[in-house]
Structure formats: structure tokens, C-alpha cells
Amino acid sequence: MPTFDEVYFSSDTIRDPVAGLAQLREHGSVHRSEVLSGWVTLGWRDCRTVLKERRIGQGDRIGALVANLPPATAADLHPLSDHMGRAISFLDPPEHTAQRAAAAQVLDAGLGQRIAPALAAVIDARCAAIAELSEFDGIDDFALPVTVAMLAAILGVHYEDREDFIGWVERIFSYLGSPQDDPQAAADCKEAYRELADYVESLLTRARAHPSARPSTLIELLTHPDADHGRTQADLMGMLVGMVQGGFETTTTLISNAIWLLCEDRDRRRQALADRSHLASALEEVLRLAPSLKLDARQALVDLTLDEVDIAAGDTVVAILIAANRDPEVFADPDSFRVDRRPNPHLSFGFGTHFCLGAPLARTQAAAAVGSLLTRFPNLTLADATVPWRASGLLRRRESLPLRVGARHTNGGN
Q1: Global pTM value
Q2: Residue-wise pLDDT tens digits, 284-338
Q3: Is residue 412 part of a domain?
Q4: 350 Cβ partners below 8 Å, 6+ apart?
Q5: Cα(24)–Cα(7) distance, integer angstroms
Q6: Quick check: is 27 in a domain?
Q7: Using CA atoms, how far apart are residues 88 and 241, in angstroms rounded to an integer?
Q8: Cα(60)–Cα(167) distance, rounded to whole angstroms?
Q9: Contact criterion met (CB below 8 Å) for 327 and 338
Q10: Minimal CA–CA distance to 274: which of 142, 345, 413, 374?
């Protein structure tokens, strides 16, 4: 039987992860990975345990991240940056509880409603530009600019700086999605993270110097004189850098993967657009079948056993979401796209304490973007179905998404 590393990091699995991971799962849920310097779980129940179990937390995740590097290089990169380890997703309770509560005050349930007009305006502008074209890239010309514009509006980063922070995040994810054993790639990741942190710090400084009378962005709210001063500068930096880092990559991928899957099958697309509830459930299927993040890493805080495998305190434990989401013990006909699949307990937004804070916002943006694009251009088709997937162990994203507009909508509107 091949090892997990032989299957997961092969070019065949990058292109099509279904068959290889399914075969491995038949031989047990828990496997060893030398590339990831730890254990991986493939079954849905064990992956959910990894994500929710208090005995499995973040621990020293940055130390685990650089475990495959030469000792001298790892020491230089530990911590990878002054702020990465302060990101909410890298904290354990009780610290995590306090920081998550602070972020949730801003990323509340009403945020989707408050951004709806701005989101609609951005989507309309992109659709108007696409209407002048016969072909376009669904990522670069639609998903990415929509998501980045919303990130700018919500957080308070400057839209005109988008090329810089897109570049920083691309460099960070390039390393995080690699075997993480290349010292130069690790150093480039650290440099990108430092540049991103410096940029966010400059925005914080500027907001403090010129407080808004009516704060609306996350940066304005967190730096306002009336804000809770229990949060340190390191807390704010970790929170904001983490949100910029993950705030648009995953949503961009969700939107582009949804367009790809719905353009593959006209009947599926018609069913998804029949009403809002069908579109919502179709997006959940996209999240299940093609999650933006293919895995979620943790660290065992104590000795424990998973699927009869003994795991020592300090060991890295990685939930392979793209395998868990197709577990036939949980999902009937797991490789089929069912627009009306309910319930759909996929793990693509995590589970438990670290369930994604931005999940409601990502769903709101994806539903508006995908629904508007496919309604405005009902004859949208894939111009090239052979575009390769990005060679990443972390992201499930195509390198590009060439689309053909086809005949225009007779009403010309959304």
C-alpha cells in the first residue's frame, strides 16, 4: 500500500484527490506523514475529533511548521513572524476565547446586511466590464476583485494597495502549501509576512492618529478611543494580519470553484439558480467537494489515541478535509454533486472552537457573486476545462478559470 505522502503529494492527487485518498481511508483513518511531520486523519469522525477535541489544540504550531527545515534555518524562522503566532487561528483557550469574542463584536450577524449595497455595486461593476468581453478569467477578472474590494471595505485596507497584499498572501500560501522543507521558500514566506505586518501596522497607526467620528471598518473600530483597551498591539496585529491573510484567498477560491462546478453542468446550474435556498445548498456542496483549504493542522496537547493509533503530546495532527468531506459513512453517494443535499455536515469551515469566524460573510459574498454572474450570463461556459490545479498541499484552486460569455441575457440585468 502506498504511503499517505506518496498519494497526497503526487501530481495525480493534486489533479484528482478522490480515488487515492479513498483507497487510503479504506486501510484506516489515521496515517503517518513524514512530509507534514505528524499524523493525518482521513475519516470524517476522526477529522471532526481533531478539530473539536480540547486535547488537540494549536500548541506550538509555528514550531511544527518549520520542523522539516535545517535546525539553523528553523531557529531563525521561529517565530515565523512576530504576529503570525498571535493570529486568532493560532491561539488556544482561554486566550483564543477572548480574542475571538473581540473579533465577533465586529464580524457580527448583521455585517452581511450592512455590506450588501457595497457588495452589489462591486459585483455589478465587474459584470458590466465582463459584458464587454467574449472571454474572461473567472478568478482574475471576477472572483478576486470582488473579494478584495469587500476585504478593503470591511477591514479598512486600501483597495489601491491590492496588488501588494495579494502578492504577500500568495507568497505566504505558496510556502504553507508546500512540503515546507525549502529554506529559501520559508525565508520568502517570513519576509512576505513581515511586509504584510508592517503594512497593517501603518494602517493602525494612521487610524489612531485620525480617529473617525463614525467608525465603520474593522481597523477604525478596533483603534477608536472608545474601543476596549484590553487588547494589546500584538493582539490587534495578530487579529488583523490573520484576517488579511485568510480573508480573501479562501473566499476567492469558493467563488471560483462554485463557478467552475456550476458551469460544468447546465442542469445543475439551472437547479441551483431556481431559488435562493437551492443556491445556498449548492454552495455547501461546493464547499464539501472542493474546499478552499484541503487540510487543517493541529497539535496534540497530551498523549491520546485516534483510531487505535497512539499519538504523543506535541505531535502534529492534520485533518484532511478533502477526504473527510467524501467519507461514505457520512455522505451518501459522496462523489456526486447534489444541489439539494441536506444535511451537509462538511468540515470545510472547521468545527468547534476554531469554526471559521468569517463563514457567514464568505457565504454571503459567494451567494451574491455567483448568483449574479450566472444569472447575468446564463450561457456562460468553460473555455478550457483542462486548466491545472495549483500544485499546493493546502489550497484546492485552479491556476485560472477561462470562461466564455456566450449569448447575452436579453434583459441585460441581474
Answers
A1: 0.90
A2: 999 999 999 999 999 999 999 999 999 999 999 999 999 999 999 999 999 999 9
A3: no
A4: 51, 296, 356
A5: 8
A6: yes
A7: 10
A8: 27
A9: no
A10: 374
Other Cβ atoms less than 10 A from the Cβ of 111: the count is 16
61 neighbors 297 (Cβ within 8 angstroms) = yes
CATH number at residue 205: 1.10.630.10
Provide the domain count of the chain.
1
CA dist list (Å): 121 to 126, 150, 368: 9, 11, 11
210: which 3 cell numbers?
A: 485620525
Beta pairing, strands 316-320 & 402-404: unpaired
User: Which residues lie across from 296 on neighbouring strands?
Assistant: 319
The dihedral built from the CA positions of residue 115, 120, 121 and 123, taken in this order, carries a sign that is positive
- Would you say residue 409 has pLDDT above 60? no
Could you tell me how many residues make up the chain? 414
Q: For residue 50, what are the domain limits?
A: 4-404
What are the residues facing 402 on neighbouring strands? 137
Does 78 fall in a domain? yes
Q: Is 414 within the bounds of a domain?
A: no
Q: Quick one: pLDDT band at residue 414, thresholds 50, 70, 90? A: very low
pLDDT attached to residue 96: 81
Q: What is the pLDDT of residues 62-120, one digit of tens each?
A: 777 788 888 888 888 776 777 777 778 888 888 888 778 777 776 766 777 788 898 99
